[in-house]
Every structure is written in C-alpha cells, then in structure tokens.
Design goal:
With 333 residues, the protein is α+β, with helices and mostly antiparallel strands. The protein contains ten helices and 15 strands. It has a five-stranded mixed sheet with strand order 1-7-6-4-5, with helices on both faces. Strand 4, helix 4 and strand 5 form a beta-alpha-beta unit. Helix 3 crosses helix 4.
C-alpha cells in the first residue's frame, strides 16, 4: 500500500569504484615527515587510492553506477534522474550529464550537487523528495571525489587524509517505504574550518575595468575544530533523524558514517550507545574519499554479505560548509 503522503522508497542497488594506484603510509612518509604509526594512531588510515592524470571522475562514477544499476536489476534507460554529489568535478560546469551520456541513460535528467563530505546524505534526501512526490521512479545517486587533485602534498595535516573513489546507489519507488527519516543542517559561521578556496588575481581589461582571474588553492583544514564539530553535532543529527523515523538506537543494525577519522566513528558510536560491531568502517584502506565514502563503505559491506535486505542503516555525513546530516533507511526491497 502506498503511503498517503506519497510514494514509498527503496534503496535497491549499490556499486563502487576506486583507482588502481595505492599509496600506503610508509610510502607517504617518503613525501612528508610522518610515519605509519603516527597516521594510524591519529586517523585509523593505513592506505589510500589515488587517481593518476588519466583517471577521470566520470570514469570512476560510471563504473560504480553500472554496478549499482545491475544490482537493482534495471537498465540505464530505466533511470529517470542522476544526481552526482561531488566537490571535484572533471568540469566546473558539472560532470553529471557526461556520466548520463557515458551510461546511455537516455531518459535521465542529470545534475551535480555540492555539499562536500555531506554530499551523499544531502543527495539521498534530494533523491527521496523526487520519488516521494511521484515525479521520478528510478534515481541514480552517485558520490564521487578526486580530492588528490586539490591536496597540498607538502602539508602533512591534510595530505595524509584524502583518497579518491566513487560509490553509487539506486533508489526506486516502492509500495513498501524503506526511507524512514532524515535531518540535514548547515552552519556557515564555521565555513573557514575546511576550505578549498578560490584565489583571484586582478586583471585590468581596459582602464577602469578589472576582473578577478585565478584558480583554486589546495585544501586547508582546522583538524581540531572539525573533530570537535563532528563528535558534537553528528550524534545529535542522527538522534533527530531517528526521532523522525520513530526508532531507537537499539533498532539500528548498522551505523554508516562518513569515513573521515576512526576516532570520530568510535566517539559517535559510543555516544549513541551503538556497539563497535555495528559500525561500518573501511577508511583504513581508502582514507577520506569525501562524498564517495558512505556509498563506497556501503557497497563493500553489502558485497561482503554483512548488510542484508531489511537491515536498518543510520547514515551520516559531515564536512565543509560546514554541513552535516543523517538519513535512516532500510537496505533492499
């Protein structure tokens, strides 16, 4: 029976793709003054995947998408809408349409969404509204980032953190509603804590007429401030999403957080009283892949047989903006 408020939603397929090049902490110690022990103790990261100059975001996203579409047992031509959550598109005007073309998703409208490491959760909420109102029935949501393009490789405070990758899910209209609740937030007063800033240089076109011409500088981050923000705000937003879903922490099968730092994952789980065995974590192998981290971790857990149909997942993203949000959903049809 369809809900009176609209159509139900099911998350029916997942996929992921990472570059072949891997850089572990020992290799990183040849670039900056650091060590595997130092990085591991502070972040939980042991290795990360990096895109070379021949690897595009479009290619990673398209491969992840094809896997998700296949798992959902539909074809690219069934897709109505493609949302690409990214902060590092191949084209500053957007990459979603190129993915739509590469997939052969001829019916789909496509657009980019930027909310940094919160992008996938914001994308989940956005996709759910299109399905809930009956506008679209099959939505492909992709989280993908190649932040190695924008890392200062001499800054050990940031270069140890980030990796590249893509993850995707398919959401479909369903008679049984599995998208249970959400909460999303923003606070621009803390924007300076995490930036990939544009720096303009003045160029005089004619006398009295100047424009700003420049490019983007590498990522800057206040790590301590981001940590304090995450451990305070993420449990709170998950609790609000659970309230909207009318479930308790004891009913959560899996806690799926943005894979930024193992200490953050542990602190959030502890505050919510969710046992460690219910926390999905793969950041040791991939690092912080920004908008890709949640769908990448989800797909890996699904394909390993950990996450099963009917399992209840609390997903939460947090990052630049500052933005943060949580969504509660059941996996599968």
């Amino acid at each position: 029976m369809l809900q009176q408020s609209g159509f139900g939603i099911a998350v029916t397929g997942s996929g992921s793709c990472t570059p072949q090049v891997s850089l572990d902490n020992n290799g990183l110690s040849q670039i900056v003054e650091t060590s595997d022990e130092w990085i591991g103790a502070r972040t939980g990261i042991r290795s990360r995947r990096l895109a070379d100059d021949r690897t595009s975001l479009c290619d990673l996203a398209s491969e992840a998408s094809l896997q998700a579409i296949a798992m959902a047992e539909i074809s690219p031509t069934d897709i109505d809408l493609i949302i690409l959550a990214t902060s590092s598109p191949d084209d500053l005007f957007g990459t979603a349409s190129k993915i739509q073309y590469q997939l052969g998703a001829t019916k789909a409208v496509a657009f980019d969404l930027t909310a940094a490491c919160s992008g996938f959760v914001f994308g989940l909420v956005t996709a759910s509204q299109f399905i809930r109102t009956g506008v679209y029935q099959n939505v492909l949501l992709i989280g993908a980032d190649i932040l190695s393009r924008w890392v200062n490789w001499s800054d050990r405070g940031t270069c140890i953190l980030f990796g590249d990758g893509a993850g995707a899910v398919v959401l479909q209209a369903s008679e049984i509603d599995s998208f249970l609740g959400f909460e999303i937030r923003s606070d621009g007063t803390q924007n300076s804590s995490l930036n990939l800033p544009y720096k303009a240089e003045s160029k005089e076109l004619i006398e009295g007429v100047s424009v700003g011409i420049g490019g983007f500088e590498p990522i800057t981050m206040n790590g301590q401030e981001i940590y304090r923000f995450a451990v305070r705000k993420v449990p709170e937003v998950i609790e609000k999403a659970m309230f909207r879903a009318n479930i308790s922490a004891a009913e959560i099968d899996w806690l799926l957080l943005h894979q930024a730092n193992q200490r953050i994952l542990d602190a959030v789980a502890q505050r919510l009283k969710i046992p460690p065995e219910k926390v999905i974590s793969n950041l040791a192998n991939y690092g912080n892949t920004s908008a890709a981290s949640i769908p990448l971790a989800l797909d890996e857990a699904v394909r390993l047989g950990k996450v099963k149909a009917g399992d209840t997942i609390a997903a939460a993203g947090f990052g630049a903006g500052l933005t943060w949000g949580a969504a509660i959903f059941k996996w599968g049809r």
